[in-house]
Design brief:
45% of the residues lie in helices and 8% in strands. It is mainly alpha-helical. A hairpin with a 2-residue loop joins strand 1 and strand 2. Helix 5 packs parallel to helix 7, helix 5 packs across helix 8 and helix 8 crosses helix 12. The radius of gyration is 24 Å and the shape is flat.
C-alpha cells in the first residue's frame, strides 16, 4: 500500500532525521510503500554502488510494484526509519476514531446521496472550499449541480482537521446562489452554515471535472479497440436486455463510453480518479430518494461536542509534546 496525503509522503516526515539524503518530496513519488506489512523505499539507482542520479525519471506505479514483488528485500527501509514510523503509527487503526467528528449538516439531497456512497469524498469537498479562489466561486453563482432547493439535514463524519477548516472559515455566499442562512441565533445555524460551505466545495469539485472534447471522444470511439470493448459488454449482458436506442440503453452506453474514454486517455501512472468526476458519476448512477432522506433526517443521532475547538495554550503544549 502507498500512503500519502496533501503533503505528499507524510510518513517520511516522521523519519526525517533518518531518511537517505537523496530522498526528497520531488523524487519520492511511487518510491515509498508498505509491502507485506513492512516499510520499503525504492532508491533512485538500482544498486548501492551506483551514484544516485537526482535526474532519474520517476517510477510509474506498475514499475514500482514490479520491483517490489521481485526484489523487496533490497528495498526494506533501514531500521531507524522503520522504528520512527512505527512509533508514530502505533495504535492505529483503533486511534482513528479519536480524530473523527460527526456534525449535522443541511445539504443538498444529491450531496447526501454521494456521501452515503463515498464518505471519503468529504475531504475533497472541504479542501476545494478551503482552497477556493475567485475563479472557483464563479461556478457557485448558479449551482448547476447542487442547487439549494432540495436540502435535507444529515450527519457528516469529518476528521477534526477538516471540521476545523470549515468552521474557522468566514464566508458569505453569493446572493445569486440561492443559499441563505438563518439568523445566528437559530438553533440549527451551524448545520446550515456547514452544509452551505460543503455544498460550495462539492460544486467547485464538479466544475473542475475533466472535460473531454467531442472530437477527441469520437476518435477514440471509432477504433477497433472500442468495438471489441463494446462486444465484450454485450456478451456479458451489460445492457441487461434493454433495446438499443431506449433511454436506459443510451444511459448505459454513455457510461461505458465515458469509462472507456478515461481508461484510454489517462496515463498509466494515473491511479487517482478526479474527485469531481467521481461525484458526477455517483450522481448519475445513484437514485436520490428525497422522501427517504427526509425520514432519516427526522431521527438523526446527536452530533459530537466541538468544545475541543476551544483549545488553551496549555492544552496545545501538551499535544505538541505527545
Amino acid at each position: 500500500a502507498r500512503i500519502n496525503d496533501n503533503d505528499g509522503e507524510f510518513l517520511l516526515i516522521e523519519a526525517a532525521d533518518f531518511i537517505p539524503k537523496w530522498l526528497n518530496p520531488e523524487n519520492s513519488d511511487n518510491r515509498v510503500f508498505f509491502y507485506k506489512g513492512e516499510l520499503h523505499i525504492i532508491p533512485l539507482s538500482d544498486t548501492e554502488e551506483q551514484e544516485c542520479d537526482f535526474s532519474d525519471a520517476g517510477l510509474t506505479i506498475s514499475e514500482a510494484l514490479a520491483l517490489l514483488s521481485a526484489r523487496s528485500e533490497e528495498f526494506l527501509a533501514a531500521e531507524p526509519i522503520r522504528t520512527a514510523v512505527y512509533r508514530r503509527i502505533s495504535g492505529y487503526p483503533e486511534k482513528i476514531q479519536t480524530s473523527l467528528h460527526r456534525a449535522h449538516c443541511y445539504l443538498p439531497a444529491g450531496a447526501v446521496a454521494v456521501l452515503k456512497q463515498r464518505p471519503s469524498l468529504v475531504a475533497a469537498a472541504v479542501q476545494a472550499f478551503y482552497l477556493r479562489d475567485p475563479v472557483d466561486l464563479r461556478a457557485c453563482r448558479t449551482f448547476k449541480t447542487f442547487p439549494p432547493d432540495e436540502r435535507v439535514m444529515t450527519v457528516v463524519t469529518f476528521t477534526k482537521c477538516l471540521y476545523a477548516q470549515l468552521m474557522q472559515q468566514q464566508f458569505v455566499p453569493d446572493r445569486r446562489s440561492g443559499y441563505t442562512l438563518p439568523l445566528p441565533s437559530h438553533p440549527q445555524y451551524k448545520a446550515y452554515e456547514l452544509g452551505m460551505k460543503l455544498a460550495h466545495g462539492f460544486e467547485i469539485l464538479c466544475s473542475k471535472c475533466s472535460k473531454i472534447s467531442p472530437d477527441s471522444k469520437r476518435n477514440v470511439l471509432c477504433g477497433p479497440l472500442w468495438e471489441r470493448f463494446l462486444s465484450t459488454l454485450k456478451e456479458n449482458n451489460y445492457f441487461k436486455g434493454e433495446l438499443e436506442g431506449s433511454v436506459k440503453y443510451s444511459e448505459l452506453l454513455r457510461m461505458a463510453e465515458d469509462y472507456f474514454q478515461r481508461s484510454v486517455t489517462e496515463p498509466e501512472s494515473s491511479v487517482e480518479v478526479n474527485p469531481g468526476d467521481e461525484v458526477l458519476t455517483l450522481l448519475q448512477t445513484t437514485t436520490v430518494d428525497l422522501k427517504e432522506l427526509e425520514r432519516e433526517a427526522a431521527c438523526l443521532p446527536p452530533e459530537d461536542d466541538d468544545s475541543w475547538l476551544e483549545i488553551t495554550p496549555d492544552d496545545l503544549d501538551k499535544i505538541l509534546k505527545e
